[in-house]
Amino acid sequence: MTTAEPIELSLALDRAAGRRYPLGQQLVDELRRRVQAGSLGPGERLPPVRGLAARLNVTPETVAGAYKRLVEEGYLRGEIGRGTFVAAPPLHAEEDPLAPFEAAGALPPFASQQPTPGPPANRDLLRLASQPGLVSFAASVAALDLAPVEPLRRALSDVLAKDGAKALQVGAAQGYQPLRAAIAGILREQRGLDVDESTVCVTSGCQQGIDLAAKVFVAAGDVVLVEQPSFLGALEAFRARGARVIGVPIEGDGLRVEARPKLLYCMPTYQNPTGRSLSVEKRRALLRIAASHDLPIVEDDSAGFIHLDGDGLAPPSLKAEDHAGYVLHLGTFSKLIAAGLRLGWLVADPPVFEKLVAAKYASDLSSDALVQRAVHRLVVDGALDVHLEHARTAYRERRNALVSALQQISSSGVTFDVPEGGFNLWLELPRDGPSSTELFLEAVRRGVAFVPGPFFFSAGRDGPASSAALRGLRLSYSAVAPPDIERGVHLLSDALRGITEAARPAEPLVY
Amino acid sequence: MTTAEPIELSLALDRAAGRRYPLGQQLVDELRRRVQAGSLGPGERLPPVRGLAARLNVTPETVAGAYKRLVEEGYLRGEIGRGTFVAAPPLHAEEDPLAPFEAAGALPPFASQQPTPGPPANRDLLRLASQPGLVSFAASVAALDLAPVEPLRRALSDVLAKDGAKALQVGAAQGYQPLRAAIAGILREQRGLDVDESTVCVTSGCQQGIDLAAKVFVAAGDVVLVEQPSFLGALEAFRARGARVIGVPIEGDGLRVEARPKLLYCMPTYQNPTGRSLSVEKRRALLRIAASHDLPIVEDDSAGFIHLDGDGLAPPSLKAEDHAGYVLHLGTFSKLIAAGLRLGWLVADPPVFEKLVAAKYASDLSSDALVQRAVHRLVVDGALDVHLEHARTAYRERRNALVSALQQISSSGVTFDVPEGGFNLWLELPRDGPSSTELFLEAVRRGVAFVPGPFFFSAGRDGPASSAALRGLRLSYSAVAPPDIERGVHLLSDALRGITEAARPAEPLVY
After folding, report:
1. Quick one: B308 exposed, middle or buried, by C-beta within 10 A (0-12, 13-18, 19+)?
2. Are B357 and A107 a contacting pair at CB < 8 A?
3. In angstroms, what separates the C-alpha of B28 from chain A's closest C-alpha?
4. Partner B, chain A 144-183, Cβ-Cβ below 8 Å
5. Residues of A (260-289) whose Cβ lies below 8 Å from B
6. Segment B141-151, tens digit of pLDDT
7. CB contact under 8 A, A107 and B29
8. 20 to 30 Å CA-CA from A380: which of A365, B190, B439, B495?
9. What distance in Å separates residue B145's CA from the closest CA in chain A?
10. pLDDT tens-digit series, residues A16-41
């Protein structure tokens, strides 16, 4: 492998900006911008530190510091003795549902008082998963190939034809009343919730529900408990609020943390990333813990409609058994229709509900009026039900294809539970094999991607460096067609075998 | 006027809830819910305190406390010697763009550490403005009767037909790249901004831009400076963050506040509520203040496209002259298309931009993908321009109708500036006349509504009780047809004359 010549960097720093915008920061920003914009391409070699420093008339420390920062952020990589290179292909966010994590993750924390847990692994890793042509198990999203495009197009068109400009009128912060009533209806029918629209608030996706809970319950420095592993978006929202996010196993005795927690976030049904559900006993234990610790619980029920087995429904939501008002229940149409549709809901009891609505109002006034009406129509005319039946059948096939392909490679020592719902399967690698991060690098090289375990782990007992984190990985099957699933698992198996054999003591090669 | 019999209140409190949900709170929540739901109607008389207390088996203090709280919140009103009554008609949020303020304003503060400025006036007042049949100058919104319903319907339909499920794919937190480029284009052409899409982030309306600025710059207890008077939604967003919001006149010497401010929020062009614009000199002074105090400025430019006079454009944005990166620039399609469309943008320089994008991600991942594509299409195919030309013409007619009607009543002592853009005109009442709040009550009785001055004023120099606040009021003309404008001004004039004459020392009536 030859080393490329360093590129010419035509750069001008603004010396007049002075202390306000230091030269080193300018250099960091400009180089980052160029990598993001693609004008510095992956693999390109940057000028040596001293040469660039001389040309820009800054100290070598300034240039070295800028390079170091961009290496930490994942934009550049250093190779000992060879120089500094552009690390990754530029982001194509539209192609990669994980890209938003990148946008957030590559950045410095913005609340200076917040204790900053470092990213659980080099986030640059995940960017590799955006390469075209990969079989990607990385995206835990509703399948785009199943999306009800035509019903949605019809609903939007009908709403505008029938309601005209009224469909574009801004409404109350808590949302379009008929949609709230329709949400209450499907929660009563399918999630065991005894609610009407008076305690349902429309949100811009489940993520906004989490953010509103953080706004109402959490101040900088407060402790938030999460399952270990947990949903990445929730970890980001709580960290952005300056919270100390601590992962705990959700058991009867699982809440012994050094500081009094302000909130507990969990996904009791078809959890992301593990696909597991809490038993009835654990749910009741959780409600007892809430009462005895006076601890509000955020129930993320975004997978609660994606039951794949039996004729019945998913286990009833945690909120269904919450008679004391401790549970804030969240869900989203993003998982039911398509991820780009930013429309979800929260359910909470009166004193808290009103605080959440006030926070929603201060956040963005209300969710999009037209989309609320169109989705309302999909719910009430039955199109959502029809779509969901169809989608569940497809997800079941995909889940089955994944399970059956994994069973074929089980001799390689991987283990997993069969998920009964949702979009994800949690795989555990053999104890004596590579870590999930090591496997990831080899897997991407061979054409298959997933999300390695450490990304889902927080500080606390069994953190990102624990055996559970290092051996675990998430395979999301929802958005992958069955033939690709089979191919992907074979590539994964090859990667696992390849890396395991490579790690063995060298033997004489006879071929 | 006879006093109605008290109603029968069939109520059951949950005694088992105990300390978790005190009986008094239950009573407050239940009564509030019934007023909101309309099962307790305006004017209905509540049972006397002692009777209800006996029947519910609680202390009279519990009932009295609940009534008192609901009176403060504006749901009930007490009349000395007559009893307690339901105060206002139930909210019909869909009909009243101000209703979201109610939802937020009627609530207890949710950040306990926040110093809570009380509402600047009884918010129940504004609820009166939602009565049907009023000529309402209360809503500062894009006119629904002008909304480009058909172009939007076509755009949505075309996007779904052409892009299919891709239009429903979740994108990067900063937004759909072609839309960001299109926004940069219109900002370059019409707002004097030298930007490309790399520093444009799509937001869910201008309100979310304000909320993101609060998240990035402001902690509980920090001082935020605002113009006096200022935009109600901004005041709510900063207060929700726990900020101390202080109103200052924006002058060269206007920043002498006791604590170092963290942020300044202003609307330099066609300000809401006054309709005024800052002069070039004041804009430059503001930028010098930013530099010397190291103070970030949030420029709300949401009216910057609504210029009504001359052949040219609005004054260039403040951001256009900001070469040091102090200005965070906000705008929104809500004012250009319709208020229910929750889509706006922010522009900021690199170090801050990335923090704002991270905050956007943690807030709601991204804005709705489909709406972003549809609005992108409206921009690039020229439909937005065509609509804006048409809308500006209509707004000009409405502004002119308002000004000409007001000139006819100028003998009553009211004064105003003619706004050169935006949706609002600020009227000042004569010094010796009624306050704008007094006038409001009389005006609503006679069939015309507006927003009284104190709603727009914060703590600080010239607060809600200042002469400027009490004498001022906002007339929003954008959403009122010219004949209604003329009728509304006459009603207003009648109300002013009526209240002024009633206030004079009684004279013998000869008619």
Report:
1. buried
2. yes
3. 10
4. 144-145, 147, 149-150, 152-153, 156-157, 160-161, 164-174, 176-177
5. none
6. 999 999 999 99
7. no
8. A365
9. 7
10. 776 667 888 888 878 876 765 557 77
Q: Where are the alpha helices (DSSP H) in B166-311?
A: 177-191, 205-217, 232-240, 280-293
Return the closest-CA partner of residue B348 out of B301, B405, B303, B415.
B301
∠ at Cα B217 (B212, B218), nearest 5°? 95
Per-residue pLDDT averaged across B326-345, rounded? 96
Residue range B81-96: mean pLDDT, rounded: 56
Q: Is A114 on the interface with B (CB under 8 A)?
A: no
The answer to whether residues B169 and B369 touch, using CB atoms and an 8 Å cutoff, is yes
To the nearest whole angstrom, how far is the Cα of A396 from the nearest Cα of chain B? 21
- Which residue in the set A37, A211, A355 is minimally distant from B364, CB to CB? A211
Pairing of strands B344-347, B200-203: antiparallel
Residues of B in contact with A127 (CB under 8 A): none
Whole-complex ipTM = 0.76
Would the CB atoms of B368 and A364 count as touching at under 8 Å?
Answer: no
pLDDT band, residue A505 (cuts 50/70/90): low
Q: Indicate yes or no: CB of B219 within 8 angstroms of CB of A113.
A: yes
Give B347's strand partners.
Answer: B200, B329
Tokens of A456: 């889902």
What is the arithmetic mean of pLDDT over A100-104?
32
- Helix or strand or coil: residue A476? strand
| Chain B positions in Cβ-Cβ contact with residue A99 (cut-off 8 Å) | 171-172
pLDDT tens by residue, B271-280 = 999 999 998 8
> And the tokens for A51?
């040469």
Beta strands in A186-306 (DSSP E): 200-203, 223-227, 244-248, 261-266, 297-300
Asked if the Cβ–Cβ distance from B153 to A156 is below 8 Å, we say yes
Q: What's the rounded Cα separation, in Å, for the pair A242 and A214?
A: 10
Tell me, yes or no, if B21 comes closer than 8 A to chain A by beta carbon.
yes
Interface of B with A in 345-374 (CB under 8 A): 350-351, 354-355, 357-359, 361-371
Taking CA atoms, what residue in A is nearest to B139? A170
Q: Are B126 and B377 within 8 A, CB to CB?
A: no
C-beta atoms of A37 and B198 within 8 A: yes
pLDDT tens digits along B352-398 = 999 999 999 999 999 999 999 999 999 999 999 999 999 999 999 99
The residue with tokens 């302000």 is A262
**Collapsed DSSP state (helix, strand, coil) of residue B285:** helix
Phi, then psi, of B339 in degrees rounded to 5: -65, -25
> Can you give the pLDDT at residue A287?
87
Under DSSP, is residue B161 helix (H, G, I), strand (E, B) or coil?
helix
Q: Do residues B340 and B152 lie in contact, with contact meaning Cβ atoms separated by under 8 Å?
A: no
Parallel, antiparallel, or unpaired for β A135-136 and B415-416? Answer: unpaired
What pLDDT is attached to residue A224? 92
Contact B21 A324 (CB under 8 A): yes
B173–A103 CB contact, under 8 Å: yes
Chain CA centroid to CA B343, Å? 16
> Domains in chain B, please, with CATH?
15-90 (1.10.10.10), 124-145+387-503 (3.90.1150.10), 146-382 (3.40.640.10)
Check B215 against A165: CB less than 8 A apart.
Answer: no
Are B334 and A147 a contacting pair at CB < 8 A? no
Q: Which residues pair with A78 in a beta bridge?
A: A84
Nearest-neighbour CA in chain A from B343: distance (Å): 8
DSSP H helices in B383-435? 383-408
pLDDT at A73: 65
At a CB cut-off of 8 Å and minimum separation 6, what does A482 contact?
Answer: A397, A398, A401
Q: What is the pLDDT of residues A206-246, one digit of tens each?
A: 999 999 999 999 988 888 999 989 998 899 899 888 888 88
